[in-house]
Design a protein that fits this description.
The chain has four helices and five strands; from the N terminus they run αααββββαβ. With 173 residues, the protein is α+β, with helices and mostly antiparallel strands. It folds into two domains: 76 residues, no CATH class; 79 residues, no CATH class. The protein has a five-stranded mixed beta sheet with strand order 4-3-2-1-5.
């Protein structure tokens, strides 16, 4: 013990310098920690402003109930979307229209072939032949994009045009 005291008395200035550096380091560290604690206390006060323990529990239950309601609504919307998607399969939304001159003595592309069907290719093919003295309209069923009856070139083009994506134009041939 005496040797330690003797060694300290010989190196008092160095020991004092080390203690001063440690004091400054601990002071800076303490200041940083107190700032962090102050910031956390401010955040906690903002979170708990007007909320006692009972209020906080009630707030959590209200939030959970609202979340469950939103989830139930989302599930219902998912079911509604599925119903609509199923209905869309059967809607006649593919349309192809080809206008043409059916007879040499009648001009102006008055005749037409129109294909109208759903995603499965089920629908109808309507053909109108315009002549000088009469007008004939034919309807052929489409199943799977095909007809059991013979198709003219214009009717086949109408079916092909209905398959094409994007805006449809009225094709004259």
């Amino acid at each position: 013990m005496e040797s330690i005291l003797h060694s300290l008395s010989n190196h008092v200035s160095e020991a004092f310098l080390v203690l001063a550096i440690l004091f400054v380091v601990f002071a800076v560290w303490t200041i940083n920690l107190s700032r962090k604690v102050r910031r956390m206390n401010l955040r906690w006060k903002e979170l708990m402003d007007g909320a006692s323990g009972d209020n906080l529990e009630r707030m959590l239950y209200d939030h959970l109930r609202e979340r469950m309601q939103v989830q139930a609504r989302m599930d219902g919307l998912g079911e509604q979307i599925q119903v609509l998607e199923d209905k869309m399969l059967g809607t006649k939304r593919h349309l192809g229209l080809v206008r043409y001159d059916a007879f040499e003595d009648v001009g102006g592309s008055q005749s037409f072939a129109m294909a109208l069907y759903d995603d499965r290719g089920d629908g109808a093919l309507i053909t109108s032949l315009i002549g000088r003295a009469d007008c004939r309209v034919y309807c052929k069923p489409l199943v799977g994009g095909r007809s059991e009856r013979n198709l003219s070139q214009e009717e086949q083009r109408a079916i092909q045009d209905a398959v094409k994506p994007g805006p449809k134009s009225i094709v004259s041939h």
